[in-house]
Write a structure and sequence with these properties.
Strand content: under 5%
Number of domains: 1
Largest sheet: none
Shape: rod-shaped
CATH topology: c-terminal domain of poly(a) binding protein
CATH superfamily: Ribosomal protein L20, C-terminal domain
Order of helices and strands: HHHHH
CATH architecture: Orthogonal Bundle
């Protein structure tokens, strides 16, 4: 059986890992074993956090909406219930942006929701 020399492929793998470790400090960017562990862990966290980011933004939009509807005498849950009754189909991201950028338009939506709830 022929002898397999793995130098080229091994170097290619290491090179890829070292490229991914750019920006790390100390041995985490210099030492092969440490780099491999650091990059593998970073990739694992990146995968997890791409999913968590969606949750975090939804929580942010809900908190902003709750803060925006309180001065209009409603809670967040009442507001969402009123939106469904008024058949206003806007997602939380759009509503949150509307509350920040166009308070008058958001106030009009709040009035519509209040009328439906009453």
């Amino acid at each position: 059986m022929a002898r397999v020399k793995r130098g080229v492929h091994a170097k290619k793998i290491r090179k890829t890992y070292f490229k991914r470790a750019k920006g790390f400090t100390g041995g985490r960017k210099r030492l092969w074993k440490t780099v491999r562990n650091a990059v593998d862990r970073a990739l694992k966290y990146a995968y997890r956090d791409r999913r968590n980011r969606k949750r975090d933004f939804r929580r942010l939009w809900i908190a902003r909406l709750n803060a925006a509807v309180r001065p209009h005498g409603m809670s967040y849950s009442q507001f969402i219930h009123g939106l469904k009754q008024a058949d206003i189909r806007m997602d939380r991201k759009a509503l949150s942006n509307l509350a920040i950028e166009q308070p008058k338009a958001f106030e009009a939506i709040c009035q519509t929701v209040k009328q439906k709830l009453a």
